[in-house]
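Dear colleagues,

I hope this message finds you well. In preparation for our joint manuscript, I am sending the Methyltransferase domain protein (Pirellulimonas nuda) sequence together with its predicted structure, so that both groups work from identical material. I would be grateful if you could confirm receipt.
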Amino acid sequence: MAAETQTSDSNQDPRDVYRRSDYSAGVRRPDCFIVPLLRREIEQTLESLSTAGPKQRLLDVGCGEQPFRPLAQRLGFHYASFDVLQNIRGDVDELGTIDGDLPASLSARGPFDLLLCTEVFEHVADWKAAFANLYSLLAVGGRVLMTCPFVYRLHEQPYDFWRATPHAIAWHAQHAGLTVERIEQLGGGREALGTMLASVTFKPATRGPLSWMVTGAARLLKHASHEALRSGWMTRFTEPSGGGLIYQSNLAVLRREA
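The corresponding structure tokens are as follows:
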């Protein structure tokens, strides 16, 4: 019996190369843990960063299909979007790369009070340039809300470059002149283990009947374990822990002070 990880994205829509576009997840897909977790935490953080008074300017960096646009507008943000490719609806405001030369028209829209950058930076090759651009786009007192995964399979290849730690985010932020307000490690052993289980398939290692039997048993065990983790049934009795060392994703709030 041999276990294989699922790594190929060869059938992926080219428009979805750089982003998790819509934050929806299938029950048995590897993203069935990370997507609901991220959506909940991003929405809660957006709400906490909204203020009464004049509309704040928000730029959605790597916006994809703009899943957080409705909430941002309900919260009173003046929403603008930026990405490497136009989306299906054709409503991305500015096109370019966050680690390249920014379009003059994008800079003219700023400065921004909030930069929303969710699950983008693992696909950004040059973090030094990207963080410098984040700083330049922010108003004084403005913030960056960013997330990037720590435990997740290779995806959106060949543009999958990094799995960042909180220390990497803090280092790049501080060297770009940004203050770290908070960095959270989202998810834990349950989410990380479930993601890894969903990313693994089993196939017979030999042609013999015993190999087929063991492979079938492994597939059943994988499915049962994944469902127990996903449904929350297992956590009624035991909580898988990563001890703070294994977790699903990073969420950071950074601020420009001057």
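For the figure legend, we might mention the following. The chain has one domain: 19-188+245-256. The first strand starts at residue 2 and ends at 5.

With kind regards,
E.M.
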